[in-house]
Design goal:
about 220 residues; mainly alpha; two-stranded antiparallel ribbon; 10 helices; Dol-P-Man:Man(5)GlcNAc(2)-PP-Dol alpha-1,3-mannosyltransferase; glycosyltransferase; transmembrane; dol-P-Man:Man(5)GlcNAc(2)-PP-Dol alpha-1,3-mannosyltransferase activity
Length: about 220
């Protein structure tokens, strides 16, 4: 095999993703550390999240009364529970550096799951480096600590579970993601189509009921 053929095989054959993937995750971990070290944290919603969580933890349960600097609480319950955990871990939100580190770990976990989805589908290796080049994703996770990262992790974890035909687990994880940020409802039509084609109508209805029960 000549050099040109070797390069083409390296770029095209899915078997090479098994060792390219960990290199990309490690490289992106270094990049995340560099971003946290060199680029200032961007205050947009973190303080508001923490103010809202403080009210929730003090006993307030009326959504209209749970507010922060930039407005009222507009996200579902799993968002509140997730950021309540972060509230305790980061000294009531004051330890922003720790928050950034936790979100960097979340970003890397999400990246690993996304790569697993790509590998599961037989994607060629040349696609994988594109996954670590997004300036926007690094900003959303590491600099702004948005809840989009939590929702995205749930979405990709659900996709991976669906790829492996873990239907109940996939629906539970997806529905939990919806309870973090309702934009994940946009996946509902695709999930309905996939489950009906894979399982038939009645099992799909049961999965729909399961998704609703998670919200309850």
């Amino acid at each position: 095999m000549d050099i040109k053929s070797r390069i083409w095989d390296f770029c095209e054959h899915p078997r090479h993703t098994k060792w390219i993937a960990p290199i990309l995750v490690l490289g992106d971990a270094f990049l995340c550390a560099l971003i946290i070290w060199k680029i200032p944290y961007t205050e947009i919603d973190w303080t508001t999240y923490m103010q809202q969580i403080s009210l929730y933890l003090s006993g307030e349960r009326d959504y209209t009364a749970i507010k922060g600097s930039t407005g009222p609480l507009v996200y579902p319950a799993a968002h509140v529970y997730s950021y309540a955990g972060l509230y305790h871990l980061t000294d009531s939100g004051r330890d922003i550096l720790l928050g950034q580190i936790l979100f960097a770990i979340l970003y890397l976990a999400t990246l690993a799951v996304v790569i697993a989805c790509y590998r599961q589908s037989g994607a060629p290796p040349y696609l994988l480096p594109l996954l670590v080049l997004s300036k926007r994703l690094h900003s959303v996770y590491v600099l702004r600590l948005f809840n989009d990262g939590l929702a995205a992790f749930a979405m990709w974890a659900a996709i991976l579970l669906f790829q492996n035909r873990k239907w109940n687990a996939g629906v539970i994880v997806w529905s939990t993601g919806v309870a973090i940020k309702m934009t994940l409802l946009l996946l509902a039509p695709a999930i309905v189509v996939i489950t009906v084609l894979s399982l038939s109508l009645l099992p799909s209805i049961r999965l729909g009921i399961l998704a609703v029960l998670v919200q309850v």
